[in-house]
Design goal:
This protein has helices at about 20-30, 55-60, 75-85, 100-105, 110-115, 140-145, 165-190, 200-205, 210-215, 255-260, 275-280, 285-295, 300-310, 320, 325-330, 370-380, 385-390; strands at about 10, 30-35, 65-70, 90-95, 120-125, 195-200, 235-240, 245-250, 315, 335-340, 345-350. Helix 2 (about 55-60) links the parallel strand 2 (about 30-35) and strand 3. The model has no long low-confidence stretch (mean pLDDT about 95). Helix 1 crosses helix 7 (about 165-190) and helix 7 (about 165-190) crosses helix 8 (about 200-205). It contains 17 helices and eleven strands. The chain has a six-stranded parallel β-sheet, with helices on both faces. A three-stranded antiparallel β-sheet has the order 7-8-9, with helices on one face. By secondary structure, the protein is an alpha/beta fold.
């Protein structure tokens, strides 16, 4: 069965999160990913959570559909392997600190001199240029510096970071879009190009409507927690059993239904609340009335009411509930792969559903250097060459 990116070959120098997430998804879509690791491996191979047989769940969550080779890039012979590979692949992707690939001699300028058709994607915290180019970057730092934390958390309380490393994941998705776009352009022009993806830029681009809120008012949007800055009621309400139900009833058709479901019909035509704009302006008067009613109901009772009224609603679930949810299972957003050390590992499913060219988990996450022999023989090296490379720690 064919896949959308079948035939696309990628040399992957990335490690940890943003790059590996990008190349895993490209691999899910059919690209052949050759993951080039240092001799001691991608450092995330030792990061928690550690599974029962000692493998890193962190690494296993980000590296399916890849072949692993090991290269000591300080050795000229390893560089020659890279130069040979550059003539046989379509894309190089790396997330070294800016400047490192140039010092190693595997940067875009060097590789594209001989292979102008090469697409080369660099992912970094702050980009390959600009005043923050050399600044060390981690997800919470980027969240803080791009305003994301300033709008995340409850009113009147401290800023809060998003609970997943969102900056890495978003940069990875932008890298995927950019690589595919450059590949389409290459089919027209025959020329590759360098792609510069920054976690910082990626998060600034997500500010969208909150940035426009600032542009319109010249005031910081602030933190709204479980509320919505522009809509009332649109909130996660606490229920009497300690759970939360999210519901939105923000237009003039849904709002009366919401009031009826809670037995607050008198609020429907109240002149303080009979438009969304008025409800937003008088939020602190109306919301306590809704909150009191919701605290009298269990999560299931609240959800049943709102579902019957056909209002947008849903629970806030923990992970044990998410991964037993009938929709997650029916949509195949959880599956298992066999692994030579751990036996069976769980994997998150594919968020894209193709009618004719589906994504596939063709390869489990690789063991370190598992494909040295296969890849080097493909490049024309003999068994003796490969054994000598191994003995002399080139690979």
């Amino acid at each position: 069965m064919t896949q959308p990116l079948e035939g696309l070959k990628i040399l992957d120098f990335t490690r940890v999160l943003a790059g590996p997430f990008a190349t895993m998804i490209l691999g899910d879509l059919g690209a052949e990913i050759i993951k080039a690791e240092p001799l001691n491996g991608d450092e995330s191979r030792s990061w928690p959570p550690i599974l029962q047989k000692g493998e890193s769940g962190y690494f296993l969550s980000l590296n399916r559909n890849k072949k692993s080779i090991t290269l000591n890039l300080k050795d000229p012979r390893a560089k020659e392997i890279v130069y040979t590979l550059a003539g046989k692949i379509d894309v190089v992707i790396e997330n070294f600190t800016p400047g490192v690939v140039k010092r190693l001699g595997i940067d875009y300028d060097r590789l594209s001199q001989k292979h102008p058709e090469l697409i080369y994607c660099s992912i970094s915290g702050f980009g390959q240029s600009g005043p923050y180019r050399d600044k060390r970057a981690y997800d919470p730092i980027i969240q803080g510096m791009t305003g994301i934390m300033s709008i995340t958390g409850e009113r009147g309380r401290s800023p809060v970071k998003i609970g997943i490393p969102i900056t890495d994941l978003v940069a990875a998705l932008y890298a995927i879009i950019a690589i595919q776009s450059a590949y389409i352009q290459k089919t027209k022009s025959g020329k590759g190009q360098h792609i510069d993806i920054a976690l910082y830029d990626s998060m600034v681009s997500l500010l969208t409507i909150m940035a426009m809120q600032y542009f319109a008012t010249q005031e910081d949007p602030g933190r709204w927690g479980l509320d919505h800055i522009h809509r009332v009621p649109a909130k996660a309400f606490e229920t009497k059993d300690g759970h939360y139900v999210q519901v939105a009833a923000t237009n003039e058709v849904m709002y009366p239904k919401f009031c009826e479901m809670l037995g607050l019909e008198e609020l429907i035509d109240d002149p303080r609340f009979n438009t969304n704009a008025k409800r937003v302006a008088n939020r602190d008067e109306i919301m306590p009335l809704f909150e009191e009613k919701m605290r009298q109901k269990t999560r299931d009772e609240g959800l049943q009411l709102f579902e019957e009224a056909k209002l947008p609603c849903g629970p806030i679930l923990n992970f044990s509930e998410v991964f037993t949810d009938k929709n997650v299972l029916q949509r195949e957003m959880l599956f298992s792969l066999e692994h030579p050390i751990e036996g069976v590992i769980k994997q998150l499913g594919f968020p894209f559903k193709f009618s004719h060219t589906p994504a596939q988990a063709r390869l489990r996450p690789p063991l370190l250097g598992e494909h040295n022999q296969e890849v080097l023989k493909w490049l024309g090296y003999s068994d003796r060459d490969i054994e000598r490379f191994r003995e002399e720690k080139v690979i």
